[in-house]
Write a structure and sequence with these properties.
2 domains; 13 strands; 31% helix
Length: 271
């Protein structure tokens, strides 16, 4: 497992979703991004940059202009592989603001064990009807609520229900209470959209659906990766995840207030 493998999983997920949303893409040796395909800043994303001190400012400005042209908020997801080393300072100088960090964590799937709480049933989403329930559940407590859930659901309807996507729904005593998505890249299962509805939290549901999704990916992946909020790290550590890369910062270029649920983690840089 390498830091690059962790970064690549998130990058491929964001680029694929952005493409389905109709975003403008750049994908070359200098930079990779998808901008304009989502109303959500996290998904209008610069996901890779291998720049020099001579061209970094111009590329930053180009990304910001695209965000403004499309009328969307946007984010730089800055990981350890991004260059130059002073990229954060350059983003600040360009008007971006720092709003937090997203620690990357990983686990070897074979090491993940444990049982779900009593009364909890976890199933994979296979149909449009399943997905409608998944979207409704996600909208009750994740990120930007219904707006984000409906956009994500629309992308997933286009993508279908087969690999590289695997979506999971948790029901407690028959009632939908939690969600998770797995996105597969070679040897790696990325875990996303882990959410427990507010009224069912602190019962081990988030850990249980994460554990189930990870173990179910053992047929095609050796490692599972995710990005955690500070509050979620202890939960994932109990499953077996460990910090694998230094914290990843994101940068955003929108001044509009954003309604945030408790599950994304701190929203990093914005202006």
């Amino acid at each position: 497992m390498t830091i690059q493998a962790i970064e690549d999983n998130t990058a491929e997920l964001l680029l694929r979703m952005g493409s389905r949303g109709g975003g403008a893409h750049r994908d070359d040796a200098k930079a990779r991004w998808t901008i304009g395909g989502s109303p959500i800043d996290y998904h209008n994303a610069v996901v890779a940059a291998d720049l020099t001190t001579g061209d970094a400012d111009a590329v930053i400005a180009e990304s910001a202009e695209l965000m403004k042209a499309h009328g969307v908020p946007g984010t730089w997801h800055v990981g350890p592989s991004m260059r130059p080393g002073d990229l954060g300072e350059r983003l600040l100088a360009a008007g971006f603001t720092d709003e937090g960090r997203e620690p990357a964590m990983a686990v070897e799937i074979a090491q993940v064990t444990g049982q779900p709480p009593n009364g909890l049933e976890i199933t994979r989403v296979h149909t449009e009807q399943d997905l409608a329930v998944w979207v409704d559940t996600l909208g009750r407590g994740f990120g930007e609520g219904v707006i984000e859930a409906e956009w994500v659901g629309g992308i997933y309807r286009q993508e279908g229900f087969d690999d590289p996507w695997r979506h999971y729904l948790a029901r407690l005593d028959g009632e939908p209470v939690g969600t998770a998505t797995v996105f597969l890249t070679p040897g790696v299962a990325g875990i996303y959209f882990v959410m427990t509805v507010p009224e069912a939290r602190r019962q081990g549901i988030g850990a249980a659906i994460t554990r189930y999704a990870v173990r179910a990916a053992a047929d095609v992946a050796q490692y599972a990766v995710l990005e955690s909020s500070a509050a979620g790290q202890s939960v994932y550590r109990r499953i077996g995840f460990r910090g694998w890369a230094r914290s990843r910062s994101t940068r955003s270029t929108d001044e509009r207030p954003v309604s945030r649920g408790p599950s994304r983690g701190p929203r990093p840089w914005r202006c």
